[in-house]
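Supplementary Methods, section 5.1.

A reviewer requested that the exact input to the structure prediction be made available. We therefore reproduce it here, unchanged from the version used in the analyses.
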Amino acid sequence: MKPKSFFVTEPLVQEPLFRDGDRVCFIGSSIAMNGANMHFINLFYATRYPERKVTFLNCGIFGDSKQNVLHRMKNDVLDFEPTWAVLQIEESDLNPSLYYKSRMNDPLILEKRKNALERWIKNADSIVRILLTANVKVILQTPTIYDQASNVAEENAYGINEALKECMIYLKELGVRYKLPVVDCWTILFDINEIQKKDIKKSIIGRDRVHVSELGHFVMAYQFLKTLPGTKEVSYISIDAGSIKAKQQVNCSVNDLVSGRNNTSFTYVSKSLPFPSPCRINVDSLYGFTDTFNADILQVNGLANGNYKLSIDTVTVGVFNNTVFANGINLSRFKFTPQYLQSNRILSLFDDYWKIERNLRIIKYVEFTHFSQDKKKEDVDVVKNIFNKILVEEKESDKYNFFKNVYSIYLANKPKECALKSKMESILNEVQGINIPVPHLYNIERTL
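The structure derived from this sequence is encoded token-by-token as follows.
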């Protein structure tokens, strides 16, 4: 059967949502603080739109309620001077314990659940109004799902996923009211998690029923990019070797095209780089991301029957027959091309950036969670006494190791806070220096 071509009509380059100089903060609790969803979007923008410097800011705090978000709005959100805010509010305000089986005999349980949902809705509206009043543009992102189906040890707050669905519906209504874009993560994750009907042990959510896996974070990023405007292709070249013409050049340019009986060559420069897929996840396991959002297509018609070696600069990509060339080759699938290696250097820089980001967010978590304004968080002895007291109280709880770890990170990094912020800025500047695409020589040579 003849392979299907990548494009029936010419692909379109669409203006992305974020502009040069935009600062985009992601507000929420632990899923936002984890940051992987935001990191994938950040990486996409850095490679797809290298001419734009868009800064992505983590404003998540472990276990935060929307009331706490309101409390830290000025000092931890607006102080970043964001132009955009992505609201990622989850289930904390719904109080999952209200859905535990052990609470079912509480005569006021339904009223308590209703009140919790109403607080969630009220606080969501308050956050949006504060951001809009501060001239921050808002994107609403619906909550992720709660996994009620997995066979895991964590107690099941059965029914809370339906409450999260109500939150999703409300955010869509809020989006209409304020004319805001809405990214629906709840529905896409719920649909994926239906695989549990076939295998009850599988889930895109972690064993605590709440936190999405890294693949889940990638799905959230995919939904974000799919929902909002932007360019889906890296580039698309269509060449007619017979007439020696570049028929289509989408998001790229082709120069110095030469075509003979056995050889076609040209100089190519794209406006984008391929998205470097992290090796720890399979980006194509659910939605074929590489062909839908990372297509870097080389299509060559008019080649005589036979096999041809494709080289980029000094790198041999592979040997393909004329039919494969005519239908198009997605070069993003080859992770050793010069442009993909360039993207990997960007990913490596961001890995260092995100490690620093996490340490800085742990500083924020500790200070917003444990230090009121009258406590001297700059006094090391005061801080250590607070930590030691909490660790003694939590000695037998399942939170002990968590607290011990974050306190250790805090004490190690708080004295270096300013230096870490400077290092992050330095890394961003380095990314902007190496993410600009450069010309490459493409050579298509007939083999014996």
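The chain has a mean pLDDT of 91. These observations are discussed further in the main text.
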